[in-house]
Design a protein that fits this description.
Layout lengths: L15 H6 L10 E8 L5 E3 L7 E4 L4 H9 L4 E6 L17 H12 L4 E6 L21 H18 L3 E4 L6 H11 L6 E8 L6 H7 L18 H14 L3 E5 L5 H10 L4 E5 L1 H12 L5 H14 L4 E4 L2 H10 L5
Parallel strand pairs: 1-3, 1-4, 1-10, 4-5, 5-6, 6-7, 7-8, 8-9, 9-10
Antiparallel strand pairs: 2-3
The structure holds ligand PBG and zinc ion (ZN).
Amino acid sequence: MSGFPVVRMRRIRENPVLRDMLSEVAIERRQLILPIFVCPGEGVSNPIQSMPGVCHWSVDLLPQIVEPARDIGVNAFLLFGLPTYKDADGTSAFDPKQPVQRALTALKEKYPGIFLIADTCMCEYTSHGHCGHLRRDGRVDNDLTLALLSKTAVSQAEAGADMVAPSDMMDGRVAAIRAALDEKGMSDVGIMSYAAKLASAFYGPFRDAAGSAPSFGDRRGYQLPPTNPREIIRDAMLDVDEGADMLIVKPAGPCLDIAARLRERTDLPLVGYAVSGEYMMLHSAISSGALDRERALLEYHTAIRRSGCDLVITSFAGELARILKDGPKKG
Ligand code: PBG
Ligand code: ZN
């Protein structure tokens, strides 16, 4: 006697008040993280070709993007950088005079209440575009890269980062970065590791935006194979053992199953990263009129929360916050 007609699910759905009361998952403004691309120069707010609606910002103009976001309730920012020079080892990644470090210091001083996360990787800073030190055979040397990443994380922390977010996918980077930060007396700086970062076509627009596409080959030697869920979970759980404070799952939409599985395996906060390709997928469908903007943005990002993510990184953070603040149109 547990089925229809005694049981009628619509009894708890049809009344709009009750339906609203029973809403299980929501996305809130306090859970959003806005990625920002910082570039050299002054007075620069350059629209990014591959990501309409997103700009490169020079340090002096950062208030133009940070302040409106903060005023509408987005308090956390993830910084990426375009350096003034690149070399084989990406040494500009740990140069305190480069845009990310200058931005961290400037923002921390001007807005003490915001939370600053620095993306920690070498690919934006290396002349070859790979995420670490290249060996002669063209492969990325894991252990030499750990030293570069640690230097980068320390320099970002010294500049004012509250957390560093290693996105390189080398083995052992979380432990190496933790040890390097602790040794410098920065045990309060956290690590938000890209724990489940898949080799993905959805990073395409970002690589144009950040000038970080590999000049040869691809990243499949270090990023995770989308076909291997067990391997992905195993790799992500190593970051937990190594002392990560939070785990990023990316690209978020194509990895909802991974987030759900990680939710069962760890109590660490999880962060879904709706990446540049997801931004463009939504942006294109919305601007062509195929999808309703507010409903599509809410549904897409709420699904990331439903999969088990506590926080969401998205270039739509500002727009979402506005929709959430004003209340969505009903529909
Ligand atoms: C750097 C990095 C990438 C992204 C975040 N950090 C690119 C990549 O791995 O090629 C992707 C972000 C996005 O697509 O929005 N390793
Ligand atoms: Zn990288």
